[in-house]
Specification:
Blueprint lengths: L11 E5 L4 H5 L2 H10 L4 E7 L14 E5 L1 H6 L1 H13 L4 E4 L4 H9 L4 E5 L10 E3 L10 H6 L20 H13 L7 E4 L11 H13 L4 E3 L6 H11 L12 H10 L2 E5 L2 H8 L3 E5 L8 H4 L7 E3 L13 H18 L1
Parallel strand pairs: 1-2, 1-4, 2-3, 4-5, 5-6, 7-8, 7-9, 9-10, 10-11
Helix pairs in contact: 7-10, 8-9, 8-13, 10-11
């Protein structure tokens, strides 16, 4: 069988990346490359409802098919509506970049003619075009694993870096929010939270770093979700600081706008780190030495970033010294100041 898929301008493709925020960001190069190579084809993206705003205003995405995973698994009526919508959308090709089992099943149930996915899973039976790569080997970056799917499509331009498209009014609103908190450029953002998918630098270290940067005269603020407010409040109390915090005050788009205005963002390997990098902001990323969580697979894409890890694989994230992270942030600020 010829692996290349023949596409007509009237065809529609659905690209499925329905897991976390960072995962969707790292799928953007594949999505944009696909649209660049097939400008007349409708390229749509299936994404989780909480990550889908990443794709807003992206000129390479013709439509977003957002889903609620909890309802899809628990609500019969939602599943019926989802399947009906999938069938009626008329997709000719579905590319499941990360094949979640229930999504794979529904692509088959909806009888999408060409269904591309991994050939190494039990639910690979729901696909009729298979890609035999192993993400578990963690031999390259997640974005490159996504780009592997291009082998089914014609050659052409290649986009390697994800981008987030912010409107001027979003930037203006973020500036107003920062001003209301007394923050003006240059400033640093610390994001101590995580989605729970990786080993993390202890939150108390973030608060110690906040204190040290404030003493060094660096304007610093914390970001986080509403659910992370107690963690930030308790950590600040233990550290004896009263930090400027935007926790619970931003949605995904407004957080991205704030991060785009920062000079440096410090975060664990989590969605907001990739969000910041996609806006062009320099990041200091804190990563474990474990292969499946390492920057080789999950590092920020782009230039000018800094990665800090424990010195040896057997050492935990708590062995990364606050002084080392502070020095990296100050060095990055100096570098940016010199370049201005």
């Amino acid at each position: 069988m010829n692996r290349l898929i023949d596409l007509e301008p009237s065809d529609k493709i659905i690209v499925c990346r329905t897991d976390r925020i960072g995962d969707l960001i790292l799928a953007v190069p594949f999505i944009e490359t696909l649209k660049t190579r097939y400008p007349g084809v409708s390229v749509e993206v299936m994404a989780s409802d909480y990550a889908a705003p990443i794709l807003k205003y992206n000129p390479y995405v013709d439509a977003v098919f957002s889903i609620d995973h909890a309802l899809l698994k628990a609500d019969v009526n939602y599943r019926k509506s989802f399947l009906k919508r999938l069938r009626e959308s008329g997709y000719r090709v579905a590319a499941a970049l990360y094949p979640e089992r229930h999504i794979s099943f529904f692509l088959w149930k909806a009888a999408v003619p060409v269904r591309i996915g991994s050939g190494r899973r039990l639910h690979s039976i729901f696909f009729n075009r298979h890609l035999y790569h192993s993400r578990n080997a963690a031999e390259k970056h997640e974005s490159e694993y996504n780009l592997d799917f291009l082998e089914f499509f014609k050659s052409g331009p290649l986009i390697k870096e994800p981008r987030l498209y912010l409107k001027p009014e979003e930037i203006k609103s973020a500036q107003a929010l920062l001003t209301s908190k007394g923050i003006e450029p240059p400033f640093v953002v610390l994001h101590p939270g995580t989605g729970g998918s990786t080993e993390t630098w202890p939150p108390d270290n973030f608060f110690a770093l906040y204190s040290d940067l404030q003493k060094a005269g660096v304007q610093t603020l914390l970001t986080g979700s509403k659910a992370e407010i107690p963690m930030i409040t308790d950590g600040a109390r233990r550290a004896g600081i009263e930090p400027v915090s935007l926790a619970g005050e931003t949605d995904l788009r407004s957080l991205a706008a704030v991060l785009s205005l920062a000079d440096v963002v410090v975060a664990n390997s989590t969605g907001p780190l990739h969000l910041a990098a996609a806006t062009g902001t320099r990041v200091v990323g804190l990563y474990p030495q474990r292969r499946v969580m390492a920057p080789l697979r999950w590092g920020p894409i782009g230039t000018g970033h800094c990665i800090i890890q424990p010195e040896r694989p057997a050492m935990g994230m708590n062995t990364i010294a606050v002084d080392k992270v502070r020095s990296a942030v100050l060095a990055k600020l100096k570098e940016l100041s010199t370049a201005r």
